[in-house]
Structure formats: C-alpha cells, structure tokens
Amino acid sequence: MSTVQLESTVVSAAASSPAVAFRTLLTKEMLRFWKVSFQTIAAPVLTAVLYLLVFGQVLAEHVEAFPGVSYASFLIPGLVMMSVLQNAFANSSSSLIQSKIMGSLVFILLPPFSHWQLFGAYVLASMVRGLVVGLGVFVVAVWFGPPGFKAPHWILVFVLLGSAMLGSLGVIAGIWADKFDQLAAFQNFVVMPATFLSGVFYSVHGLPPFWQGVSHLNPFFYMIDGFRYGFFAQSDVSPWLSLAIVVVALLLTAAVALRMLARGYKLRN
Amino acid sequence: MTAAIQVNSVSKRYGSVLALDNVDLAIQCGEFFGLLGPNGAGKTTLISIIAGLVRASSGRVAIMGHDVVDDFRAARLSVGVVPQELAFDPFFTVRETLTFQSGYFGLQGNGAWIDEVLENLGLTAKANANTRALSGGMKRRLLVAQALVHKPPVIVLDEPTAGVDVELRQTLWAFIRRLNREGHTIVLTTHYLEEAQALCERIAMLKGGRIVALDTMRGLLARVAGLQLTMRPRGRPPDSVLAHKIDERDGLLTLRLAHSTDVGRVLAECAAAGCGVEDLEVGRADLEDVFLQLVTDRPSAGASAGAPA
Fold first, then answer.
1. Taking the domains of chain A in order of start, what are their residue ranges?
2. Of A177, A186, A193, B193, which shows the fewest CB atoms inside 10 Å?
C-alpha cells in the first residue's frame, strides 16, 4: 500500500467547479436534441405550419377572434406558443425517460449534481428547444399574416415562463413514468388536450359560458392568452391575471420537480 | 486514519425483502478489496448505496470521511463506480462521452488524463466512434473509463469482467493494479473467484444481506488449510480415513487433509484395510472452497466454520 503518490494523482475537490458541471449537463442536454434536430425541431415546425395552412384557410371566413385582426394573424401566436409548450415538455420528459430506460441515467446520478443543478439544466435545455421551435414556426408562419408586436415584453415574459413551466412538468412526467407508453399517456391525455383546448384556434369569448368557465381552469389558456396580448394588445383576460396564474403554475411544478429530484423519487430507490 | 469506505449498520429493505441486514464494514485507503457472494447476496445493493445510487433504509456510509448523503458532493468526487449493467448514451462518441463525464464532475481541461485512460484501456482507436457502434467488450471498457475520468481515490468495480474476453481482462487488471499501486483504493465484486484470489488483499463475503466472512485472503485460505484428496475406493475405506471425508458422490470420495504427509498415511491405511484406490487426485484448497463452504452450506472437515464478522 503506498499512499505517497496519491496526492498527485487524485483531483482535489477544489479543482471541481459546480458551474462547469452545470454547464456541461446543459450543453449535453442541448446537443441531445440538436443532434436529432430533424425530428426535434424541423418536424414540429412543419406540423404547426400544416395547422396554419389548413385551419387558416378553412376558418378564415368564419371566425373573427379580435376586432380588426385577421384569423391567420390571430392563429399564429397561438400556434407558436403551442409549439413552444409541447416541445419544452417533450424535451425534458423524453430525455429523462430515454436515459432511464437505456440505463445511462446512472452517468448523471453518479456525479455530484445537486437537485437544483439537475432541475436547472433539464428545464433550461427544454426552454431552449421550445424557443427554437417557436421561432422556427414564427419565421415560417409570419408570411401568412404578420401579427403586430404591440407589447413585446409580454411576449418574452410568457414564452419564458410558459416554456419553463412545461419543462418542469416534463421533468415530473419523465421521472414518474417507468415506460414510454406511460409518458405517451401523459403527453396525449394531459398535455395535448390542455394545449388544444386553451384557445390556440379560437377566442374563448366565442364559446358558450360553460366552456368559457372550463377554459378558465386551464393554465395553458393563460399562457396563450398572455402571449397573444403581446402581439395585439387585446386578450380574453388581463395579462396581469395571466401572469399571476402562470407564475403560480410554474412555482408549483418547479416545487414538485425539485422535491422529486431532492428525494431521489424513482431515481435513487 | 480515515477509512476509504466506512459502512455503519447499513440496512436496505425493498418491500418485504431485506436486501442488506445491518452491515458494518471498513475498507482502508490503498486496499485492494473483494466483495464476494452469490447472486442476490446484496453486493450490488451495497455498492449502489456507496455510490449514492440507492438510499439506505438505515445506517450511514462515508467515503474518505464524507457522508454519502449529507456531504454527497465530496463523497461522489471521491469515488468512481463501474456499474454492472452495460449502459451508454447513444448520441455521442467515446471521447465526447468521457469529456461530458469529466465535466459532470466539474473538471475542465482534463484531456491529457482522458487520453491516458483511453490508451490504458485500449480505447484510443475507438475514441471518435459512436458509442452505438462499439462491441460489448468495448462498451465495458468505456464504462470503466467513465468511472475513472475524475481520478477518484476510491474505485468500485461491480463485476467488470462479466462477459469480457481474456485480453480485456488482462489489460483491465494491469491498469487497475497500477492505480492501486499509485494509492487508489479498489473495491471489486466478481463471480470469478480465481480473479479475486489473484488480486484482492482482503475479502468480505456476503450472504443473504449479511457479511458472513471478513478476512485477509491469507486468513481465508488458512480456514481451508491443507489438501483435498479425491479418489475412487474399491471397497470400504477404514473409519480413520472416512473421518476426513468432506464429500462423496458417484463413487468418488473427497477428503480434506492437513498435510501432504497425510496422503501417504491415508493410502497406507486403505491398503492395510484391503481397500484399493483408483483415480487419485490431489488439489490445494483455494478461494472457491472457502466460498462454497461459507456461502453454501457444504459440510467441511478441515476448516472452522463461523465467521468473526
């Protein structure tokens, strides 16, 4: 046994930087979707544009959501936000479930990451994917009917908060699900209906009172409504109310996700 | 002196199954330590608790004096774990995988050490290959490399040679021995007992979640000191010979003898009793005998059963 040389061969704890660790995980999470960007970015952009082509054409004559706003212009922010939200969710949830099923999650669990670092890296990468897809949808869609930028700070606030909330919801779903079909169920029975029924394609003012009431229970409605306010300075409810509800939804999902990560729920059992 | 790994009264319960039952263990710095036991004995559970992959139901574990729960940062920086299951991230190349893993431990500019690890594990030629394209043996090498990127003072290998060819085993053990000589503590689990016997200075044997033996290799081998004599008697050997019996099957009688001089005595006694002897074979007791004796309930004449754990 010789412990003499140990000092020189072992990395001292001081040489290890939590900032480097965080940056590395964030980079890796972004590269993960970037390396398959055809599937993770191009495909959702195409889907959104197809919605715009079909619904924009078919419904243009029948719907006037806001006075003085064409249906295509009305639809674009909704589609952008829907793509942002769905892709932010898809990123963290699929990354976690894939590495859980492949067994490669062990490489994240062995290093000294805190639950804050794990949460931050997964959610930030999800936000980036959501924003990249959203920007892609916007750049293509804007040719169909340019919406205004009446209050751009609201655009920014809602796109950031909304993508963060869905990123952390994705962390929760990715940790909770043991199999791909459980995750698909979460995606198809929770995230999809909630985004679809949130006023992406219509103004909830046009709905019967009962369904208006139901829509107002859906946090996704406030994300899309607040986001749209940034373009038209018109919305179904006040952007401040939407902001308050989105912030609460984000804090709730973040608290649950952080608690799961801190306790190692389903990860270190 | 701080132990490399200190395990205090650790239990782990999965539902109604007690995977680890009040385990105490101290592994000193610089040791080459073997953790042996049959499947389901609790080896991987213990290693997972040491690595922070599983939380103990009760008890505490410290690595280089750092508690694996309360001081997890320092504890995880101090240990490198080669998991038993082959896992890989299919999005990246071998070098990318190692650079990321090094970054996860908060290290930058670690390229020289990564090159050295690649070289020593025979992975240099595959450095730019995608992990998906690697053979099973190469994936195993990559797992070992990933555990070493942060030069941990304690290295834990959970069955690193399962399903691995002879060449890799030689390369791997040469490298691990070198790291041990340089002061790294090594903890190894394996089902290849001759491997453990060749490498480990000290051994803990687990059975049903408990440590049933904890001793130096020399001490363990001394428990089954002497020789094993296997023979096919033609007739009934005298009682003085049968007193040494540890096994009898298919007409083959196995005896445990304290000294080589006893062989002549046994044969002479058989001859005197008119009992001929065929198929004579003499072997020295090895770790496998100790293992079988401690871990299964095979009867043994020569060794003292019971463990001072």
1. 18-263
2. A193
Chain Cα centroid distance, residue B72: 25
Q: B24 with B158, same domain?
A: yes
Distance of CA A235 to the CA centre of its chain: 22
B166 token code pair = 């002879």
Mutate to test the interface with B, among A27, A34, A104, A118 (most CBs of B within 10 A): A104
Do residue B258 and residue B277 come from a single domain? Answer: yes
Taking the Cβ of residue B91 and every Cβ of chain A, the question of whether any pair is shorter than 8 Å is answered with: yes
Question: How far apart are the C-alpha atoms of A236 and B93, rounded to whole Å?
Answer: 50
Identify whether residues B231 and B190 lie together within a single domain. Answer: no
Domain that holds residue B157: 5-78+152-221
Q: What is the pLDDT along chain B (309 residues), one digit of tens a residue?
A: 789 999 999 999 999 999 999 999 999 999 999 999 888 899 999 999 999 999 999 999 999 999 999 999 999 999 999 999 899 988 899 999 999 999 999 999 899 999 999 999 999 999 999 999 998 889 999 999 999 999 999 999 999 887 778 888 888 899 999 999 999 999 999 888 888 889 999 999 999 999 999 999 888 877 776 788 888 998 888 888 888 888 888 888 888 887 778 888 888 889 888 888 888 888 877 777 777 777 776 544 344 333 333
B chain contacts of residue A13, beta-carbon cutoff 8 Å: 73-74, 77
Q: Is B181 on the interface with A (CB under 8 A)?
A: yes
B296 within domain boundaries: no
Residue B232 resides in a domain:
yes
- The first and second tokens of residue B231, run together, are 């023979």
Total structural domains within chain B = 3
Q: Do B34 and B99 belong together in one domain? A: no
Cβ within 8 Å, pair A20-B181: no
Residue given tokens 């869609």 in the structure block = A141
Has residue B305 been placed in a domain?
A: no
How close, in Å, is residue A17 to chain B by CA atoms?
4
> Can you name the residues that pair with B80 across neighbouring β-strands?
B155
